[in-house]
Amino acid sequence: SEAATASAAATASAAATASAAATAAAAAHYRERQAGRRRLERGSVSASRQPDPSVPPSDVSCSGCGAQLQCRDCAAPGFVPAEKYRSLSEGPTGVAGLRTAVCQRCWLLAHHGQALGLRLPPEQHREVVSAALRRPPRHGRGPLLLYILDVLELPDPVLPQLQGLLSPDIPAAGLLVVGNKVDLVPADSPGHLRRLRGRVMAACAQAGLSGTPLVDVRLVSAKTGFGIEGLISRLQRSWRCTGDVYLLGATNSGKSTLFNTLLCSDYCKSRAPDVIDRATVSPWPGTTLNLLKFPIINPTCDRIFRRQERLKEEATKTEHELSSEEKKYLNNLKKQGYLVGRVGRTFQRQKSSSVFEFDPDMLSYSTDEDPKPSPKKHEEKEEFTHNEVKDARWCFDTPGIIKENCVVQFILQVLNLLTEKEVKLVLPTHAIIPRTFILKPGMVMFLAALGRIDYLEGEKPAWFSVVASNLLPVHISTLSNADAVYEKHAGQELLKVPMGGEERMKEFPPLVPQDITLKGIGTTEAVADIKLSSAGWVAVTAHEEQELLLRAYTPQGTALVVREPPLLPSISTIRGARIARSAAYRTKRPPSLVENLKTTG
């Protein structure tokens, strides 16, 4: 099995390298066609969105992505339409008026979920991160690295590259690895979090991070708040306010979401949420383009004591004792994830009610118009005083690191082929509900039109459990019909992604095969995960000592990974009854758990 896995990996690497030029050309061609279609649909660019090359760029950064605000080039980072740029920079406060603005790209991402075709070269992302980490220490000590790792993407491909970003003369004071997105992972057995933490620690050991002491490994959900209070307590106990902290990680690992969560917690200065805007968050990779930061609060003995008292008091509450607003908020989070946490604030008085100003004109503007601020709202943005930040330690959000090795890079190029709607379908944002199927030799499984697994040889049926976005369809067919199904339904509603019919599929790379041999270890424990590029994975469970010959397909230029041991070995047991005259089992959603809340019954 190990030899077959190594051979399969080598085959995937060779295939990916050979198809690099074709994939890159297809990606560029498709992006150009998409841009042309948008230009035809929109007609000419409205005057309010026109750039003005005569205006020099500002020294103010976009609060959403960190890019330098400018109105000279609409295709460059930080672009603000010239009319809006002038109205803000020529006001009574001068260029300081731009501090209330975000760039056009962040506005469209936040309000329309629309991603502009703006991409920085991978080396530019790395240069920004490396330059920040190689700065001379401001407080006589190197920074603490808070590395954010997506547990769904284990083994993490960027972690081994981390050492190359650091300066040999200014070593990092420590490394704290955070396994994020655990809220999306179903609990396949008791102690699954302990097993996940062990897998993250094993990834750290394999990365060979010599010279950077590993402080701890924590599992969190930056989105639902699970594990965040424990992470803050760990940071305040071990790091206190010794130096700066950098959030690092691959694209789409959840750094900006964690940045926003920490910004509204006990980790930042009490006025920071009123002064600093939240980072822009979207499913589109590479949203953050430069550094964002907030000042870290000094965890004095008194503050730590008051914080611990708050946590103890909250831990004694049951869900019935929460306010109606808190219950509604928690119920919404429980729909999104299996693990939920309550992130509170000790050092700032909570507002009794939230007041929202409703302005229908702001919510109904066309994407071809530039939104105009409400004329009745002219509040000055709060700023820190000099004394508040003169000796502050800062927590920095950084651009996502693009994977360096060629095989994984092409995964990102294929993601570039996906439209905004397709990206939202492929990347899971809610708790993943496993879907299990029992297949006989000669049967085929499609995961949308992004992946395919053929069961070629085996003595008995085997179980195939899909762990992927709930919005991606799974279709079961036979070997004799599989090619015809793909030809007919790729780009159509049955397979859903990609979408756009025959013309769309002409731009999309063909599926290429890779043979895999596995040996079963029992009917309740998966032997391996077959990771289908960025679409998700399929856990394979087979009878003990039964040999399986499979053939897996992914888009040309992407990596197919056989992960042994599997991330969730008992995943096939999370299922309902077998559906009559079908290969599928009914799905079963494990219950959600709320952290720091007293349970009853």
From TrEMBL:
NOA1/YqeH-like C-terminal domain boundaries: 464-564
InterPro entries: GTP-bd (IPR006073), Mito_transl_resp_regulator (IPR052807), NOA1/YqeH-like_C (IPR048422), P-loop_NTPase (IPR027417)
CDD domains in UniProt: YqeH
Gene3D superfamilies: P-loop containing nucleotide triphosphate hydrolases
Domain G, residue spans: 245-295
GO molecular function annotations of the record: GTP binding
Basic and acidic residues bias (residue ranges): 369-383
Domain of life of the source: Eukaryota
Region: Disordered, residue numbers: 26-59, 362-383
SUPFAM superfamilies: P-loop containing nucleoside triphosphate hydrolases
Protein name stated in the entry: NOA1 protein
Lineage, opening ranks: Eukaryota, Metazoa, Chordata, Craniata, Vertebrata
Gene: Noa1
